[in-house]
Design brief:
single chain, five-stranded antiparallel sheet, globular, mainly beta, Lipocalin, 36 strands
Length: 560
Amino acid sequence: MRFALQKLSGLLNFNQYLIIMLMIRRLAIGLWCWMVVAVVPALAQFEPSVRLELPISQNSEDVFDVTPLGDRGVLVNVRQGDYYSSAPTKFLFKRYDTNLKQLWTAEYKIESYYEPVRSCRTEHYLYWLMKEDENEKISVLRLNLEDGSMESFKGDLVTPMEIFHFKVLDNIAYLGGYYRSRPVVVSFSFFDLTSKVLPGLYTNHIQLNNIEVDEYRRLVHVMTDATHQRNCEFTVRTYSYEGKLLRTVNLDGNEHSLISGKLLPLNDEESLLVGNYSNDCTPYSQGVYISRIRNAVAPLDVDKEGNNMVVTTTEETRYIDFSELQNFFNYMKPKRQQKMLERLARRKDQGKDTKFRYRLLVHDLIPTEEGLMLVAEVYYPQYRGSSYPFIGSTRSFDRYQEGYRYTHAFMCGFDKKGRLLWDNSLPIPDLTSYDLHPMVQVLRTGNATVLAYPHEGEINSEVIEGGKVVREREKYSLKKLAENEKVVYSENDQLEAWYDGHFLACGFQKISTDRSLAPPREVFYINKVTCNLSEPNHNPSSRSEAPDKTTQKTSGSKQR
């Protein structure tokens, strides 16, 4: 090319030569830019595509609940109560398709002596549990998600109880709570409207931990934890659909105390139990564990009430200390992380363990081709203090909780034998919530996993592949409206993983219009947000690398 131009310059004057050189240079730059665009892979992009606004009444207290239904759409439940009248509270149910077009609407008036307590959803129905105060009367509302038809089932509990858990399996509801500080689980039949207490639970020093139902095998799993002379024991009791105790799994807490447990059935013979644990019977986590439970026939035993039961032993339980995870401390700033890793290495060389005090919110387990993914968020209660004088002293200090602050989320991948394959983490700084609930949403697409959470009208996202971060955290605004509108206030932003690369973003907003004297309109908004993710960059980001490989423990990255 250079030689041809030198010959050409002899035939042209200097100005013509400069013009041709400039054109060739621009052509070369354009070609180079095109090659860069063609080679660099597309990245995760969030695009708010469809928006739905529901007006908020100033004369009533409206509570909104959004339930994603996968590719069947979304259900919006509005609980409406009037400030200035004695009209009964009512439920307004609206189902929309995946383009947020309304399919049907249904209304249910709640009788004045009933108070909504809990809700749960199965594949075909949404259930609301309502209860009268100070007595045993209950009512269960069943909403058909397909057409909006409703049925209610009224009955009496065996005993008055404070209810904290509510699950439905086919035509039986299971209510878990406490009566006189002892745990009780009651089954309530929709057929004959009778209730009965599940055996083996009404004992001192036992707390209900979780209730899970296995719809495929028609089983109910009740998880409890108990403290006996500083020894904590975690127990999984499995009941038949009719309420018969089938087997009991005891996990002794001599060395490690299990805080939570999530079950993932692998087949009819085996399940995986996953959760977090502590070393001292406290709610502060030291790490995560995974245990394989065999459902095979085992010797019969008799409980304290004389009921026959099968006592099932677990296979080896793997305890994974946070210090054994490669990426758990990546939420810290580099210098702080470096100091933490050096401290852990020193204590390990001295034969000492490091005690952690993390509180975890463990998500439901996510099945994968290899086995499962565990997702948990680290949080701590947020307090605010105020000082004031009182008689007999110059100053007093009052401290009260005002919500929860999240620090980071972490993920662990396990195979079906319970071996740790990889781990990763996502920093979520400055994220607070009045209620404790999962903030980070997980959407798997191919080999990549999209992690996203809402914050101040924006979506924060990151893309990982196992233990690698293939796309660092990015922000996408949810405040883009019409040209003459702008969001002046945003509150209670929520994000839900939906279907096929789509999320649902919702919350409350105040929206003003340019050159308008009218007050801002207040709406509950729902945005369909599409995540366009092509082949990610396979060069891991710097955040997935430890600051100093010599100080980073790796024993938790792979177990054989």
